[in-house]
Amino acid sequence: xxxxxxxxxxxxxxxxxxxxxxxxxxxxxxxxxxxxxxxxxxxxxxxxxxxxxxxxxxxxxxxxxxxxxxxxxxxxxxxxxxxxxxxxxxxxxxxxxxxxxxxxxxxxxxxxxxxxxxxxxxxxxxxxxxxxxxxxxxxxxxxxxxxxxxxxxxxxxxxxxxxxxxxxxxxxxxxxxxxxxxxxxxxxxxxxxxxxxxxxxxxxxxxxxxxxxxxxxxxxxxxxxxxxxxxxxxxxxxxxxxxxxxxxxxxxxxxxxxxxxxxxxxxxxxxxxxxxxxxxxxxxxxxxxxxxxxxxxxxxxxxxxxxxxxxxxxxxxxxx
Length: 320
What we know:
24% strand; Oxoprolinase-like; single chain; Hydantoinase/oxoprolinase family protein; alpha/beta; hydrolase activity
């Protein structure tokens, strides 16, 4: 039996799915015997932590600096061009001083050019980890967007959601001891609890995505939810049903440079390998992981040979 769980302001809604049908409501004891739990949550109103943001790049007007709310931010010298050319050496001393004195543990690191070459973000992460051993660090290159401010905003929000994601994952583990938990992605699919803790932003609108999937399954006649006589199935149970229908999924987005077909094939192989590794981290059984989609788009108004690559991988959950 698989259970779907929709988290909301009221008590969680739980459905049990087996043999093509879902049953609601589900007794607490029965839920604890599930082979896996698929959790749908929207994090739009979740508590956020103050973030220490480090931008690696050139100086800019104050209005264009990192937006951190109650957190703190700094801009240090370094970064790369969109083609991977170094713009300046990384100011490691400035990174070290900021990490040691900012007083926070949730960090977001964004470097110019990191979707092409992430070396400076990785170096900053190593320095922060050495100065603040308990630090939780988000690197913007893992989100793949070419625009610095878009990546930076996502990295900051991901870092800010980290503690609340950890609390949610801990609560699910306490309520369902021994039941492997997956969390619904905003764009569809599931990720493991470990992945959710590290990349909560991927699940920012998980419940909304599950509600849409559940409604589509019910409208299409491919599924049903059995409820007590005369009781209308609420949106929470439909979202829970949609969560239970998901499977592990992961995406990789990169800016790559390739001067010819052979070089492009090589970087695509690397992206495919990374996507397969990531979907296993997201909870797919290793033998089931496979590539589902690859898109390659040339970047306009930039030097020839620059492409935006997006690879989607999926697989069967290893549990249940």
